[in-house]
TrEMBL record:
Family named by the database record: Belongs to the glycosyl hydrolase 31 family.
GO biological processes: carbohydrate metabolic process
Organism: Anolis carolinensis
Keyword presence, rRNA processing: no
Gene name in the database record: GANC
PANTHER family noted in UniProt: ALPHA-GLUCOSIDASE, NEUTRAL ALPHA-GLUCOSIDASE C
Protein name: Glucosidase alpha, neutral C
Length: 862
């Protein structure tokens, strides 16, 4: 009866105790149902020697639980009814197991392979004195035991003061064989069976020119796994920031709950075992059932993608390093000379005074304010500078001396400041896990403190895994000590998350809480989407890295981080011209678009590969700028409803089995299918056009593509296949300026592609592009466009429109219009509208329009 003591009182969450095979001590188990079809399982020691680490700040709030109802109980089993009446939890105590049943079908079970383990914290051994291992240790413990309490990595010794504290638990996903997520790895979109291979590792590391098709951890980690089958998607979110390993095994099973052998059929099952070095078991089961439900459920826990300022969706030009102000001016002028739009100039580590962040090299960047105001601001462009977390050990460097005086650096196990080697030489590392450090760091962005900065300067957090040259695996030792006396092993994967949080806060504060920040981070964790953008790190200028960038970005996107991109051209090495062109064509149709290169590479501004290649790159970048209204609207959807900007084909076509492993093409929103060319000398590409009832149109030629399934499309170097889905309307700008700010009042074109019912719909989101007024004052427009029964209409889609714009819709293009109309009239004025009709391609173009974007209107086609 003791097992049910808490349950009898109908407390929330339901609590019970269980014994694991691997431990003689007891654990405390809590099971919650959370609103939105989410479940939470927490397992901790009942009476730990000291508190075990529980990840803070990642969840946007502590979720409240719903009441579960007891349907059935006996000495060893409990059946609970969930908020959705067709779902139940079946809990057995010995052996401990939880089954999630939906509509009498087992969807997921926990610990069905009996792999739950939970290593208890232990009192320090007599052999550890003052954080050092003494010789008495070896007299008391044999060599095997010693290996559990200390680990050697080269010359580094990691001492576990309270012994090993790892945890693990298995999840069986019934009927699922396609699993996705757990970035970041240079791997396929579809996660692989690890039975005979390395397991997936989540451990943030600085890996220069990382290896492709490796499951080792690289710069960031999101411990979210999705499983999908035609009728359901589910997710498992493992909230733990220590080093984590994920084993995946897919097998065929006969369901035991069907007693009639004649009705049994073999079903797939994927077993996922999570193992973390420390902390507690804190896992969330996202029950979907659709992919978009999963995205919303995960965002309900960790937040949505921050709405970026519009300029940050333009093109970014970066290099390690633009050497001085004259170099910056020359590159900036080059974009105008070659008529290529761009928005942001970037400065890497060499712009600082000896790698002291928040400073400028007096010789090469002696007048940074002039550079920003006279070169960039004058042309409505921005600047991003690098700000790494390591701080040069130099008593004359104000940031170091203040950090030292206030105790703001991570400590070593003996209590001194942890010191490691990084770009400046000997460095200390700010402890961003400390709220006071984050608050102080945010204040460093004030104009009076950050000399030479202006309102157009934004931030880039690099090396924040954290990277420690000559460190074990080039990172901080696990027994370094953070705020709250937590060891680094507990918080490792959170370090970059916290730096980006502090940086974003600093930029917001700098503006008096009025302006949206832009912060790019290399290291990240669950929830990093709330603070800015992420990129895929130090890739190589090779075709294989262009190819792998697509599944890498798709994986980030379905794990909540929509604002992601890969360095165009490859960071390491010199790209051949064809690769360079193909990478621009791909990057222009991905969320974050930045060209970047290593200091050891040849210069590669977009106009340096000959006139023909410059022309093609210019066209790709200009197309990106014309598509910005659509992209910005997608980011608004990501921000409000958690829909990924860039998404795998299966997300839009969840029942189409052939789409489940597709990773060489993707959807940009609901409307555009993009197929980058990722191999040299290609003349045709094979594209899957999904959906048996769908109609697809060539985005540039307007022609209807009749085939469903696999279609071979001829390609030249000039462009990559971009295909518009029937039933969609895409807003575009009719012309392109030097940067996004030059385009504010440029008119719109609406491009409608008709579906099999000869209808289409789409949205346009519009605000000032830079402030929080959209949020605090509701100053935005959300327009809904529809074409139905030969009427094209515009309506406001959300509340009372408070944002005012002069912009007009100047042209409407309708693809798939089978008959030439006799007249087109605008409602209200009954005014005739000029049009042209292309009978061969069934395209109607309505011209010389002057339809106000912010007002309701209708066009009638007869």
């Amino acid at each position: 009866t003791g097992i049910y003591s808490a349950i009898e009182e109908h407390t929330e969450p339901y609590q019970f105790w269980t014994r694991t095979k691997l431990d003689t001590e007891t654990q405390h188990v809590e099971v919650y149902e959370i609103e939105g079809n989410i479940f939470r399982l927490k397992i901790n020691e009942i009476t730990p020697l000291k508190p075990r680490y529980e990840v803070p700040d990642v969840l946007i709030k502590e979720p409240s639980s719903l009441r579960l109802t007891i349907l059935e109980k006996d000495a060893d089993k409990l059946v609970l009814a969930c908020a959705s009446k067709d779902q139940q939890l079946h809990i057995t105590i010995n052996p401990f197991q939880i089954q999630f049943v939906s509509k009498d079908e087992m969807v997921l079970s926990i610990n069905s392979n009996d792999l739950l383990y939970f290593e208890q914290l232990q009192p320090p051994l007599l052999g550890i004195v003052g954080g050092e291992v003494q010789n008495t240790w070896r007299a008391e413990k044999d060599q095997d035991d010693l290996g559990l309490w200390e680990e050697k990595f080269g010359n580094f010794l990691d001492i576990k003061a309270n012994g090993p504290s790892s945890i693990g638990l298995d999840f069986s996903l019934h009927g699922f064989q396609h699993v996705y997520g757990i970035p970041q790895h240079a791997e396929t979109l579809l996660l692989k069976n690890t039975s005979n291979e390395d397991v997936y590792r989540l451990y943030n590391l600085d890996v220069f020119g990382y290896r492709i098709h490796s499951k080792m951890g690289i710069y960031g980690s999101v411990p979210l796994l999705l499983a999908h089958k035609p009728d359901r998607t589910i997710g498992v979110f493992w909230l733990n920031s220590s080093e984590t390993l994920v084993e995946i095994t897919t097998k065929a099973v006969l369901p035991s709950q069907i007693p009639d052998v004649s009705k049994q059929r073999v079903l797939p099952q994927t077993d996922v075992c999570w193992m973390s070095e420390s902390g507690i078991i804190d896992s969330f089961i996202l029950m979907g059932p659709s992919p978009f439900d999963i995205f919303k459920q995960y965002a309900q826990l960790t937040g949505t993608q921050a709405l970026p300022p519009l300029f940050s969706l333009g093109y970014h030009q970066c290099r390690w390093n633009y050497v001085d102000e004259k170099d910056v001016e020359g590159v900036d002028t080059g974009f105008d000379v070659f008529n290529i739009p761009y928005d942001v100039m970037w400065l890497d580590i060499e712009h600082t005074d000896g790698k002291r962040y928040f400073t400028w090299d007096k010789e090469t960047f002696g007048n940074p304010k002039r550079m920003q105001k006279k070169i960039l601001m004058k042309k409505k462009r921005k600047l991003v500078v690098i700000l790494d977390p390591h701080i040069k050990v130099d008593p004359l460097y104000t940031i170091y001396s203040q950090g030292k005086e206030r105790g703001y650096f991570v400590k070593d196990r003996k209590g001194g400041d942890f010191e490691g080697i990084c770009w400046p030489g000997s460095s200390s590392y700010l402890d961003f896990t400390n709220p006071k450090v984050r608050d102080w760091y945010a204040e460093l962005f004030a104009f009076k403190t950050y000399k030479g900065s202006t309102e157009i300067l934004f931030a880039w957090n690099d090396m924040n895994e954290p990277s420690v040259f000559r460190g074990a695996e080039l990172t901080m030792q696990k027994d370094a000590v953070h705020y709250g006396n937590w060891e680094h092993r507990e918080v490792h994967n959170l370090y970059g998350f916290y730096q980006q949080m502090a940086t974003a806060e600093g930029l917001i504060r700098r503006s008096g809480n009025l302006e949206r920040p832009f912060v790019l981070t290399r290291s990240f964790f669950a929830g990093s989407q709330r603070y800015g953008a992420v990129w895929t790190g130090d890739n190589k200028a090779e075709w294989s890295y262009l190819k792998i960038s697509i599944p890498m970005l798709l994986t980030l996107s379905i794990a909540g981080i929509s604002f992601c991109g890969a360095d165009v051209g490859g960071f390491v090495g010199d790209p051949e011209p064809e690769l360079f062109v193909r990478w621009y064509q791909a990057g222009a149709l991905q969320p974050f678009f930045r060209g970047h290169a290593n200091m050891h590479t040849k210069r590669r501004e977009p106009w340096l590969f000959g006139e023909k290649n410059t022309q093609i790159i210019r066209a790709a970048i200009k197309e990106r700028y014309s598509l910005l209204p659509y992209l910005y609207s997608l980011f608004y959807q990501a921000h409000t409803t958690a829909e990924p900007v860039m998404r795998p084909i299966w997300v839009e076509f969840p029942k189409q089995l052939e789409a489940f492993g597709i990773e060489d093409e993707y959807m940009l929103g609901k409307a555009l299918l993009v197929h980058p060319v990722t191999e040299p000398k290609v003349t045709t590409v094979s594209i899957l056009l999904p959906g048996s009832e769908e109609i697809w149109y060539d985005f540039r030629k307007f022609s209807c593509l009749k085939t469903q399934g696999i279609l071979k499309i001829p390609v030249t170097l000039d462009n990559i296949p971009v295909i518009q889905r029937g039933g969609t309307i895409i807003p575009l700008k009719t012309s392109v300026g030097k940067s996004t700010e030059w385009m504010v009042d440029v008119p719109y074109e609406l491009r409608a592609a008709l579906d099999s019912k000869e209808s289409a719909a789409g949205e346009l989101y519009l605000d000032d592009g830079h402030s929080f007024q959209y949020l605090h004052e509701k100053q935005f427009l959300l327009r809904k466009f529809t074409f139905y029964q030969n009427v094209f209409s515009s309506r406001h889609a959300d509340g009372d429109p408070r944002y005012h714009t002069k912009c007009k819709v100047e042209q409407i293009t309708i693809l798939g219009m089978k008959k030439q109309p006799s007249t087109v009239t605008a409602s209200g004025k009954n005014k005739k509208v000029a049009f042209t009709y292309d009978a061969k391609n069934s395209v109607l173009i309505l011209q010389k329009l002057s339809l106000h974007v912010g007002k309701d209107w209708e066009l009638h086609i007869q």
